[in-house]
Amino acid sequence: MSIRSLIFASPLFRLFWLGLVLAAVSGNSLAAKQSLTPVAGKPPAPAFSLKDMDGETHRLSDFRGKAVIVNFWATWCPPCRAELPSMNRAWTNLKNDDVVMIAINVGEDEDTIFSFMGDYPIDFLTLMDQDSRVIGNWPVKGLPTTFVVDPQGQLIYRAIGSREWDDPNLLEMVRQLNQKK
Q: Which among 22, 91, 110, 136 could disulfide-bond with 161, CB atoms 3.0 to 4.6 Å apart, if both were Cys?
């Protein structure tokens, strides 16, 4: 198999191109897409164990009993960059509401993420899926993809493409999950 066919067959390459397509499509219709899509059947969220930038390991199960927003992203992804400032603003609004927000970087190393965060700060928990094993267990269609997990550990909502996460309607949808405990 040639190097070219290996590159084009790579899951990360396909996510990259899908991210570019989503960026082009979502740029004009972001306001119309300020919603979250319910996940059919509310399956259990796939477990993970990942390290943060300080080397501390975090598991999804550590957050059982709380609503959790899980965002899959990469530094090279234009729509990921577009939504991160709104995710920080959302985090400011949610952090006292027993909600957890997690950014899972896909396929990049610590130095790349650290450099990126100089221009695009992330104030909430950032984890590294350097070998892309975790993303392969989640129903991710492209980057960014964000899931909302209920306090019982079920996938409740999914958002493919960027959102303005500080939108009051989106924040209320997440907060309501904690009221249903």
A: 22
